[in-house]
What does this fold into?
Amino acid sequence: MTRPQPQFCFPPPPRHSLAIAGTDARFPVRAIYCVGRNYREHAREMGAPADGLPCFFMKPAHGLLADSSRIPYPPATDDFQHEVELVIALGSGGRQIPPEEAMRAIFGYGIGLDLTRRDLQARLKKQGQPWELSKSFTGSAACSVLVRANPDSPDRAPQRIRLVVNGTLRQEAQTDQMIWPIATLLSELSRYEELAAGDLLFTGTPAGVGPLVVGDRGFAEIVDVCRLDFVVVPGPA
Ligand code: MN
It folds into this structure.
């Protein structure tokens, strides 16, 4: 039996998606989860403690750039910053996922930028308000093409991420330096939310976050796996 199609009062907005290496099929994005303070050196540079529970937050699906090679400078900031992060794309999900099963939910990996209005974040933090608008705006997430996880070795995650801007290495890390490893993050998050195919998880940034300005060119990469070349362009006023 086919379900009746809903009548929409206007055409529904397009679904955001990511390219997948080696196929024309695209990865349809559902929710975008992020982790804060997952590398000690970055927690230190932000003056934040690196203990307790992982700090999870979200970006809207429409926060993902349709074309991550062109990053628009957003309005309402004078300190727009990059955070390079390993991105996990889920091919399945569930609730209360045990850590030892979590890696099997991974569809693939990409390299992403958690783009941040740092001045606004500092101001909101100081006021004791949620820093939503500093992290969760249109164009706040950039991501490369996704590369499929190896189904024969699901526990093997990519090793090394880095970000180069205008020829200078800004950020670099081994993913085994994460405070909470990927399996722990997915398991922990699934205690609060039912994870599902189409979810992305930005796994936190290493030290070296810094400003981007219009005209900056660079690339983020999972070394030997995938790469995102980008330029920062003027955005909406
Ligand atoms: Mn981040």
Q: What stands out?
A: Helices lie at 40-45, 99-102, 118-126, 132-135, 182-189. Residues 95 and 194 are 5 Å apart (CA to CA). Residues 34, 36, 83, 85, 114, 202, 204-205 surround manganese (II) ion (CB under 6 Å). The radius of gyration is 18 Å.
